Amino acid sequence: xxxxxxxxxxxxxxxxxxxxxxxxxxxxxxxxxxxxxxxxxxxxxxxxxxxxxxxxxxxxxxxxxxxxxxxxxxxxxxxxxxxxxxxxxxxxxxxxxxxxxxxxxxxxxxxxxxxxxxxxxxxxxxxxxxxxxxxxxxxxxxxxxxxxxxxxxxxxxxxxxxxxxxxxxxxxxxxxxxxxxxxxxxxxxxxxxxxxxxxxxxxxxxxxxxxxxxxxxxxxxxxxxxxxxxxxxxxxxxxxxxxxxxxxxxxxxxxxxxxxxxxxxxxxxxxxxxxxxxxxxxxxxxxxxxxxxxxxxxxxxxxxxxxxxxxxxxxxxxxxxxxxxxxxxxxxxxxxxxxxxxxxxxxxxxxxxxxxxxxxxxxxxxxxxxxxxxxxxxxxxxxxxxxxxxxxxxxxxxxxxxxxxx
Amino acid sequence: xxxxxxxxxxxxxxxxxxxxxxxxxxxxxxxxxxxxxxxxxxxxxxxxxxxxxxxxxxxxxxxxxxxxxxxxxxxxxxxxxxxxxxxxxxxxxxxxxxxxxxxxxxxxxxxxxxxxxxxxxxxxxxxxxxxxxxxxxxxxxxxxxxxxxxxxxxxxxxxxxxxxxxxxxxxxxxxxxxxxxxxxxxxxxxxxxxxxxxxxxxxxxxxxxxxxxxxxxxxxxxxxxxxxxxxxxxxxxxxxxxxxxxxxxxxxxxxxxxxxxxxxxxxxxxxxxxxxxxxxxxxxxxxxxxxxxxxxxxxxxxxxxxxxxxxxxxxxxxxxxxxxxxxxx
Lengths: 406, 329
Description:
The complex is a heterodimer. Chain A is α/β, with parallel strands linked by helices. Chain A has helices at residues 2-13, 16-21, 70-87, 104-113, 125-132, 168-182, 195-210, 231-238, 290-301, 307-326, 331-339; strands spanning 28-30, 41-49, 89-97, 118-122, 141-144, 161-163, 186-191, 214-220, 246-250, 270-272, 276-279, 345-346, 352-355, 362-363, 366-370, 373-378. A seven-stranded mixed sheet of chain A has the order 8-7-9-10-11-15-16. In chain B, the strands form seven sheets. Chain B has a four-stranded antiparallel sheet with strand order 3-2-1-28, with no helix packed on it. A four-stranded antiparallel sheet of chain B has the order 4-5-6-7, with no helix packed on it. The A-B interface holds A 79, 82-83, 85-87, 289, 292, 295-296, 299, 317, 321, 324-325, 344-346, 350-352, 389 and B 121-122, 124, 141, 143-145, 162-167, 169, 178, 181, 183, 185-187, 206-207, 232, 234, 237.
């Protein structure tokens, strides 16, 4: 398992030009160790990864992660196989890690042709949408382990896609609930120039309306290479615009959000994508046994578990859990159980996780954390819901824009 | 056993001393030992009077605790010291260590008091320790994140529950290998046999249920849910289980629901919920089964429940993050 991991790593590090010339790599299969002499059934999942290229170079003190997602899938696979020793079920995963420029559609078609039907996807939203609409994808379940895109779960939703990480709307609602509790209801909205930032700003606006927040000012951060623009001179000017309780920042790439704190015109806290940030998984989470997952992951991967790793771990565990409960490795049985009322996945966040039937989103708590401290976990106490408090985050059934039920 | 009689407030001693001493004797005096996860210490409480008498520093992050058969020592899992410490019950001095494997949390002792069975969460194993030789004699592979562990009263079975695999693994104690598995609800925490050994009870933290399993068939008999008015379902996280010897009542600690469920152990139905301290995890009976002690991790106290009336009679501040509890007659 390890060796193929290293091969995968090398692939991702290959530079773009070289990658473009190379034919897309053949999927490799990570075999589970045969732990039992009895006859076992085997289910091979697939992992298709082609993460978006980083738009902003991370600072030197952050580790460079070249194997995001797949490490989480491998840990989930190890967990599934430990359980499988007792249920005579064995799991393997065919890893296809593509460089930017590789033909993901061809790789996807090849996986389907080889009989893979559970396919974990770490892909850009538009690519995921395109693949899910292919005729080859009709009898496949795509498990989206990285996107937070609301449209993928709404207007452009597909019946054969499940989403493991919280949507932008869920993240925004998590922030709103906490800020409402703090009575920090007047927001200064600062957004970056990227299309994704615009999408998160939209999610924040929707959430502000839902929870009675007031956006007193909205400004877009303009990026330039002008040396005279220093954080000290720019941020105080940028953050002028009426009185507000908190700066809400929408900067998913990490372009400017980190320079806002302690430089704002008014002495106000920062929340959103930086400062108090909303996430599915965070290194500060220790409760509910999470420390065990953090430790196991670190031991395997030699680094912290990222959100995408957590998404991939959840996807593999969801399949494993359904296989255990149904005592079956049949695609239809597992899929039906995963989407059924009895499905309850333990995700180290204190409550059972399950999929929303109306849009394929995994309902889950959202963590609100700063770098070295977990501040709150949403749903925040007091935000009730008639069916499941987790559905107070994001698009609830009556609001969904998804027209194809899962 | 040089046990002190019930403590009596000094100014009242002359007046009611004799009466109380009698009453205490009748009610069954006992000594309660509580591990304090965040204090690296053990607290001692006089059970009859409900007074905290002393505390002593021991290993790092002490959690599981079991009283030795002779009542002279306590075994305590010092999780961050990666060892099980042997502690003299009278002096609270650390007398030795047992090789537990990494990060020991919970463990159980066989009926003869010769072996300990330890859950090693990080490497999916149960370690068997020969107490007299202070030696690990076997490591048994089980499911992901083994947690709860129990030995059947007749010594035939050791059961280990795995939190991520969601099973109770039945280890044949003669062979020391897993021979059967029972699938239970998500995140099984604690396991307890009835005194007659015919049932195994397993609590599932995430599902908020207790599964009662028939030992003979290893099949579930019933899953008991919990519903408390005014408490959201997510807060109901069952952990510790104690069942009285006649199997009249079972008691289940419900974690952040801050309650202990009283279950009719014949009908397998919840009778009542008793409000105790915050995040109650572990339970223990007094030797005469007249009282139940609960460790409340977030309110830093021990609740004492009178089992005749099913009323919480006292809460005793013991230290930071009380975790495990053991009682000496």
